[in-house]
Amino acid sequence: MSARLSLTTPLIELPAYLRRIGTTTAGNLAAELAPVVGKPAAADVTVEDLLLYLPFRYEDRSHLPRIRDLTDGMAASVAVAVYAPSSTPIRTKNGKQLTLFEFTGRDETGRIRAYWWNQPYLRQTFPAERRVILYGEWQFSNRHQCYQVENPDYELLGDDTEDDVPETIHVGRCVPVYRKLGAFRARALRTLIFRLLTALGDVPDLDLPDELRSRSGLAGQLPTKAEALRAVHFPSVGANLGELEARRSPAHARLALEEFFLLTLALGDRRRRREQAGDKAKVVITDAIRARVRQVLPFPMTQAQKRVIREIVTDMTGSRPMSRLLQGDVGSGKTILALQALIIAVENGWQAALMAPTEILVEQHHRSLTRWLAGMPYRLAALTGRLRPSEKKAIRQALAAHELDIVIGTQALIQEETTFARLGLVVIDEQHRFGVMQREKLVTRGIAPDVLVMTATPIPRSLAMAVYGDLDVSILDELPPGRKPVVTALRGPDRRARVYDFIRQECTAGRQAYIVYPLVAESEKLDVAAATAAAEKLQRDVFPMFTVGLLHGKLRADEKDSVMQRFAAGDIQILVTTTVVEVGIDVPNASVMVIEHPERFGLAQLHQLRGRVGRGTAKSYCVLMTPDRISPEALERLKFFAETPDGFTIAEKDLLWRGPGEMLGVRQSGLPVFRVGDIVRDTDWLTAARHTAWRILRDRPDDPQTRLWLAQAQCRFPLTTGGVH
Fold first, then answer.
1. Is 340 a residue whose pLDDT tops 70?
2. Phi, psi of 227 (to 5 degrees)
């Protein structure tokens, strides 16, 4: 065919470029790949997206061992011909019926046995005399007097080989192995990717800046993009398998540096555009404003709070809009700093908006600000989805007429009907619960307003660079005086009665307790107690002398508010809940936090839950109730958590163990989809890319090459139009 593929060719159009690729096959492949690469629909998936679906491991098949060369416990690929395939029904001692499929494999040096449980369909996959490669851990069987392998990975040789695809891409070389993608197995993906690379026309090479090449430490080793794509899929003879599997080869570096550079360039450009969007909300600090701020402070500030408020004030009174991320561990006093920023903005004639992810948190902020600002002339309202239409309309009309100074709300603040007369300050609490698009929607309600983003989830530096790379960072690393560390302990099922006795003791003394469960309703798939069933049992059988409340995300908003108000007032002594209490709940009288099945939670989430206690003067406790059976890895994680009070140390470890997506734990986190780079493994490359991108935007923003890079960055990471994809 005369047409040549390009990286931007939609995958669903492959039939127009490659023979024997049908419309159904192309469509199915695109549909399977779309969610993996973060594309909204199959039609958006391109050839480049498939070429960046990288092997997860490689096998050196340049010298496949013969059967006679196997040793006990050896992990290896062996090429054999199939003989005597058979399926045998087997009944176990407990009466369970299983099916054993097995065959004998032979090469010129001997025989092996391969077998699978409950996969009878393999009888059609492995007919007699079929050539196959088996990969697994080989064990010598005294019974069968040969080496055998259980449930091995396999590849069928000579299967669907195209005229333009040599057999040597599957054997006789370092072979890429891909994770199964729907119905597409490794061999089919390898064949298709080889054909794509062969048919591909010229690959435009993003001319990486010399500074980035130098900072990466690989200046003289980085291949072109076309060379890198070929090298990551079909490495040359003698390639370093260790580097390839760790994704730290020069080819991987070339591809990772490109995506890191484009991301950080897009983040920097977004900030630059916001700063140039219009006249910044002008703010001055007078003695009268200082007096107002001092008047509402409920307690003396820590040195860390004083340092951060100076950074915030410097930003607000500067010539460019504030773009600041405020990280503070649980209970470090972020809300007091936000309060001061709100007062400064309003005293300068601006409106201020505080957006929080849940209605519970909005109501809590509203109560706190109402209490702190009592007697002040500021007009305050809360805007949430649970309000009646007439109430929402009245608040929106007041905002548009500048009859309100401060509004606290959920995502109702970013709905089209919500307009501001003079929005000068945007405060976003628990930013990791929102996406980039949601933040931008609120910011555009004003003309270059100051933006303060807050989170109590400590964010490691590499993750902050990837998600919040357009923000300056302030860190509250000091707790207010009187905050006592929470005693954390692991307890097994045999200690449950003693834990309940301790809760009774604390509640009898006038304090309160949380008991947290991972699920709301019973699940047949997970052996996890449900909060709903547990609350009934605890009230009836364990704590009949106290009031046990229930709080979870499936309750109506008014029901949640009622439960929290009763708990805050002390009418409920024991609150059985899910992770809906993870952020923003402040009940100083609560002194005990019991977390059931803590192995189901991430470390950062456990730290947030632990932060719900220790907020008053009483000594507080967090008890992790572990199940009968727990893996050594999970136990190690929980022991580390129990011994570590510092949230940033916990966050770094959580990022290392679970990865950024699971750590943030929300679909709208704004976390970009990286095809090659990994922000934990490749922090050095990410740092090099960020330094380079920001220097370029500072020194030569209007250079033609910079504009070309920016166009590619906005295509890859369209941050200004709807979030990171």
1. yes
2. -65, -40
The strand pair at 131-141 and 74-91 is best described as: antiparallel
Q: How far apart are CA 320 and CA 34, in angstroms?
A: 39
In angstroms, rounded to a whole number, what is the distance separating the alpha carbons of residues 614 and 608?
A: 12
Task: Tell me: pLDDT of 100 over 90.
Answer: yes
Is the separation of the CB atoms in 397 and 633 below 8 Å?
Answer: no
In this prediction, residues 539-565 reach a mean pLDDT of: 87
Distance CA 387, CA 370 (A): 18
**Distance, CA of 517 to chain centre:** 22
Q: How far is CA 528 from CA 531, 533, 689, in A?
A: 9, 11, 44
Instruction: Give the per-residue pLDDT at 417.
Output: 83
How far is it, in rounded angstroms, from Cα 239 to Cα 329?
45
* Cα–Cα distance for residue pair 65/76, rounded to 1 Å: 7
Q: How would you classify the pairing of strands 146-150 and 131-141?
A: antiparallel
- Which residues fall within 8 angstroms of residue 145, CB to CB, at 6 or more apart? none
C-alpha angle 30/35/38, rounded to 5°? 105
SS3 168: helix
The pLDDT, as a whole number, for residue 723 is: 35
Alpha helices (H) in 602-703, listed in sequence order: 603-610, 632-643, 647-658, 660-664, 683-699
Those residues with Cβ within 8 angstroms of residue 687's Cβ, 6 or more apart along the chain or in another chain: 462, 465
- In this structure, are residues 585 and 614 in contact, taking their beta carbons and an 8 Å threshold? no
End-to-end CA distance of the chain: 33
Domains and CATH numbers, the chain: 1-60+176-202 (no CATH), 63-172 (2.40.50.140), 287-476 (3.40.50.300), 487-644 (3.40.50.300)
| Residue 464 · residue 431 · CB < 8 Å | no
φ/ψ of 693, rounded to 5, equals -60, -45
| Interatomic CA distance for residues 275 and 262, integer angstroms | 20
619 pLDDT above the threshold of 60? yes
pLDDT digits (tens, 9 = 90+) for 15-25: 999 888 899 99
* Whole-number Å distance between alpha carbons of 305 and 480: 9
- Reduced to 3 states (helix: H, G, I; strand: E, B; else coil), residue 293 is helix
The model's confidence at residue 160, banded by pLDDT at 50, 70 and 90, is low
CB atoms within 10 A of CB 518: 20
Beta-bridge mates of residue 86:
102
Picking from 520, 488, 521, the residue whose alpha carbon sits closest to that of residue 595 is 488
Residue 663: the pLDDT is 53
CA quadruple 714, 715, 719, 722: dihedral sign: positive
Listed in sequence order, the residues at least 6 apart from 126 whose beta carbon sits closer than 8 Å to its beta carbon are 82, 85, 103, 132
Residue 94: its pLDDT value, please? 77
